[in-house]
Amino acid sequence: MSNQLLKGKKGIIFGALNDMSIAWKVAEVAHAQGAEIVLTNAPIAMRMGEINNLSAAIGNAPVIPADATSVEDLENLFDKAIEHFGGKIDFVLHSIGMSPNVRKNRHYTDLKYEWYHQTLDVSAMSLHKTLHVAMEKDALNEWGSVVALTYIAAQRIFPDYNDMADAKSLLESITRSFGYHYGTAKKVRVNTISQSPTVTTAGSGVKGFDEFISFSEQMSPLGNADAESCANYCVAMFSDLTRYVTMQNLFHDGGFSNTGVTQSVIDKFGTEN
Questions:
Q1: pLDDT tens digits, residue range 229-269?
Q2: Lowest CB count within 10 Å: 74, 153, 185, 249, which one?
Q3: What's the average model confidence in pLDDT over 167-182?
Q4: Which of 110, 186, 113 minimizes the C-alpha distance to 146?
Q5: Taking the mean position of all CA atoms in its chain, how far away is CA 92?
Q6: Does residue 273 sit within a domain?
Q7: What are phi and psi of 261, to 5 degrees?
Q8: What is the C-alpha R_g of the chain?
Q9: CATH number at residue 231
């Protein structure tokens, strides 16, 4: 149901690959809530995905290729987005994550360090670069909102999440540090949303992911939050209703983050007579 929460607002959404992507859902919900959108992803991801279908579904939104690890690409992205919108931007979604070590099944204790650097650059440093370029170009309106997607593995060990856990920790630190500076200078707010494990193209590549989805469902009092619910939360964070929320890591996980154990999990162990 649309109540035009984002009427008149303009935003850039990074990371929509296909209709399994959270970024895809965010674009759909933001558009339904009245926003104008520019879509972007790395050129290789755009070739693999279906982003043009999303563009058509949300009013032929421009699709501007950009490697988020490249400052030059980001500068071009913001320039073209501002030109398209005829003014500054109100919100940005950073939904980017990739680990060659996970893809190649390298154990965390035996990482290939060249790939480790790629993981950190693509999944976390890209947020710093995005914020840096936006700030240098004064591209965001006052009270603008930047949201990056993260996961609780930044705080707790999930063995098969591998070096992506380190990347998410860095991502959350950048949110706090840059959030301070951007807030002080331009009243732009920067937050992360720590989402339930969600069936996406990226997430399903993690070893044991299907089993963990089931475990998380049973460990969350409300169950796992799905992608569309996450999109609704992102839209709330883009809206004027959350103007004074910044530098936060916001859990959107059905209560998983504050639950030690649930009765359904205890019951699985049974009792011995």
A1: 999 999 999 999 999 999 999 999 999 999 999 998 888 88
A2: 185
A3: 98
A4: 186
A5: 10
A6: no
A7: -160, 155
A8: 19
A9: 3.40.50.720
